[in-house]
Amino acid sequence: MPGKHLYEYAVIRLVPRVEREEFLNVGIILFSKKANYLNCKQQINTEKLKLFSCELEVEEIQINLNAFDKICSGAKDGGTVSQWEKPDRFRWLTAQRSSSLQTSRPHNGFSNNLDATLERLFKELVL
User: Fold this and answer.
1) In whole angstroms, what is the distance from residue 6 CA to residue 75 CA?
2) What is the pLDDT, as a whole number, of residue 93?
3) pLDDT tens-digit profile of 98-107?
4) What distances in angstroms separate CA 87 from CA 71, 93, 101, 102, one per listed residue?
5) DSSP secondary-structure letter at 85?
6) Selection from 30, 58, 53 nearest residue 121 by Cα
7) What residue spans define the domains of the chain?
8) pTM score, two decimals?
9) What distances in angstroms separate CA 95 from CA 13, 21, 22, 103, one per listed residue?
10) Where would a tag sit more exposed on the chain, N or C end, judged by fewer CB atoms within 10 A?
11) What is the pLDDT of residues 60-101, one digit of tens each?
């Protein structure tokens, strides 16, 4: 029997040079409308990043990744988007864009423990 919470998740990808279409998975965003849950976890593996042709500074990337945290948590210093309803924030974060930080298309599943699911997906898809 599936878990009680329907969720959607997307992988946060670092695209060092958009024209090369190479990416490194750096995070997960997990959303459940019914559970009123929106959270993300991210980490840059600098050793893997060295394998890419990358002119981006790790500090700059981290600042931009921190915006995902602020928007997910609804932080007041996260800009206008962080004050939107959670479903709207998730859709905005996962909208297709051509930048150095992108997300996969959303995928779904069921979970009894959304925090544990976020951790599992992070370990499977990012680490």
Assistant:
1) 25
2) 96
3) 788 999 999 9
4) 12, 10, 20, 18
5) -
6) 30
7) 5-125
8) 0.92
9) 13, 17, 19, 8
10) N
11) 899 999 999 999 999 999 999 999 999 999 999 999 887 889
CB contact at 8 A, 108 and 121: no
Sign, CA dihedral 69-70-73-79, equals negative
pLDDT class of 125 with cuts at 50, 70, 90: very high
Cα angle 32-36-40, degrees, rounded to a multiple of 5: 60
56 vs 117 pLDDT, higher one: 117
Q: Are 19 and 111 in contact (CB under 8 A)?
A: no
CB atoms within 10 A of CB 94: 20
Q: Which residues pair with 6 in a beta bridge?
A: 110
Tokens 């499977």 found at: 124
Where would I find the beta strands (DSSP E) of the chain? 5-14, 24-32, 37-42, 101-103, 107-111
| Phi, psi (rounded to 5 degrees) for 110 | -125, 145
pLDDT by residue (tens digit) across 43-65? 999 888 888 877 778 898 999 99
